[in-house]
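Hi R.,

Here are the chain sequences for the assembly we discussed:
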Amino acid sequence: MTDPLMAYLVIPLVKIVVIVAVLMLVVAYLTFAERKVLAYMQVRIGPNRVGPRGWLQPIADGLKLFVKEDLIPSGAQRFVFVLAPCLIFVPAFLVWAVIPFAPATDLFGLLPQPVEPFLADINIAVLFVLGVSSVGVFGLILGGWASNNKFSLMGGLRSAAQMVSYEVPLGFAIVAVLLMAGSLSLVDIVEAQRDMGVWFVFPGILAFGLYFVCGVAETNRNPFDLPEAESELVAGFHTEYSGMKFALFFLAEYANMLVVSSLAVIFFFGGWLPPFPNLLASVWAAPVLAWIPPFVWYAVKVGFFIVLYIWFRGTFPRYRFDQLMEVGWKWLLPLSLANIMLVGLGVMLLKG
Amino acid sequence: MTEPLKSLFDVEEMELSFGPQHPATHGVLRVQLKLDGERIIEAKPIIGYLHRGTEKLFETMAFPQCIPHTDRMDYVAAATNNQGFCVAMEKLLGITIPPRAAYLRMILAELQRLASHLVWLATHAIDIGAITPFFYTFRERDAILDLFEEYCGARLTLNTMKIGGVPFEVPDGWLDRCSELVDGFNAHIDEYETLLTGNRIWKRRTVGVGVVSPEDAIDYGFTGPPLRGSGVEWDIRKVFPYDRYDEIDFKVPTGANGDTYDRYLVRIEEMRQSVRIIRQCLDRMPDGPIMAKAPKILRSTEGMVYGSVEAPKGELGYFLVTTEKGTEPYRCHVRPPSFVNLQLLPKMVEGSLVADLVAVIGTLDIVLGEIDR
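And here is the predicted structure of the full complex:
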């Protein structure tokens, strides 16, 4: 395995292809899951016509969007109009380069030596994720502006204000995690939770709450879905988009949901670790819990957050714009600042 | 965006045409907005996109033929529209309808009020971003429409009342099925309330939004839930009872602050009162004929008459001018509650945000078919 061609080209390429393909499929089926779960919450059945029990629905949706006519409204800034969906889609998928969804594995003995299934473990992964994902907001603003539509423009403006103001408490909430883990590498953060024998959600419950609220706001989902508030702004920033460009916005939104859920799992719920790492040695169920592959733990935890997202959508009305700003600046920001001090004090006292 | 801004700090008002094709304007209402960012400087409702000349059509039709056309005005509450026209006509012709007909009419009208309020709740909640109540309310609404279908064959445009009574005797077991539905209804209302009444976001979106003082409400001719939400106790069923509402015991709920949340509570309570009314009607249902003795061809005397009923959205009145021995109205003016209630929209939303406009349109519960006629 010392062959540089293998190590730097072939293996990463294989990983990239696999990750992107799986991610695309997961995102597509996420839309299906959302429609199904939402349907069951709303006393209806949901998609059940395409394929057995509707399982081919996302494929059909994808095909439809792919062959649909791609409209560019007259008066739109053509270049920016085309650029915007790329600007939001690329970061949403780029982030996955550093998200560790499982530890090094030899795939049940199939590989000669353990390989890390994720693409890269970089030492500033947290900064990378925050930096890359905040590029996505440009896509929203530019898309809204370039459409030459007042509703789109307002959606774009709303999203700009919202994402900028919620990124601040989001960052501060993550700082609390960094204080506890002492590292910016996502892998190290997971391993710190294993070593400490406790998921960060227990010492950092406030940080978790702040993180998740801001995360929901970052992804423009209920109850913070103002940029695309259907009843107010028709469809917000993507009113004028159709066909594959619209699909890119959609894929990006769901990929971002996955990112936020994944990070919540990694920061606060021990990533791929089985539950209650500190009890592992003493409980009779420990061997069973440890036997389940780490990736399954990770997927189950992420799935929980996804269901939470859908549950929010099923139950919450939408905030008004000024109230949204109020929540962000008057509540979340001071709370997250106070949280840093609290966690910092705790870390100082415990670690010495 | 035609003229370039003079400097960086120059501000410009944005004009936004909100509708007529917009998901939240409940049909083809168009509101011309002048916006400063998201704040509304001026709002001007523009109507007429659904004008069908119903009032003029009435002038060419024999009295009974008018009734199907009343269905199409407030198309989510057809039964009360029929009732309004029949009440006005009976007043004109001096017909007293038999008790069984009156009780059946009250059942139909109150079922219709429930159905209409369910549509209002569904759309109002969706406008404010809560999508789930829609599916729950439409489940119950469908059950009500099933009853209508069984009774008169139609689900939406019912044409279910005649001048002098009701056209059909109820099918076997219909009253039992109606009773079953009514008994379970309060539990369903509790369900909707679980989703919304105590919800903090719902309260933040509705409390203090679109406040109407009782004076304004009276000055602008508000009727129905918007008037009662402002704390004025006024219900045609109480003050000018028609059919047999004077024999029924029910309360008229009122609000205190006149905001969107109060109007929401008033309508929810009205649904519970409708359930009570139907319950009483079912318990006391008299036997007897369902049509009064009226001539085959109705001929009017010269005169004018105004008859009104409490429709789900407010006072629905018909003003008829008739000629001697005429078979059709000389002139029929309809006083639609939605039209009058819409008047205050600009005053209610000025200075608030676009999101509030949506909430206010929802809380006024307008139907464009009735506004434009």
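The CA atoms of residues 190 and 247 of chain A lie 33 Å apart. Residues 63-351 of chain A form one domain.

Let me know if anything looks off.

Best,
T.
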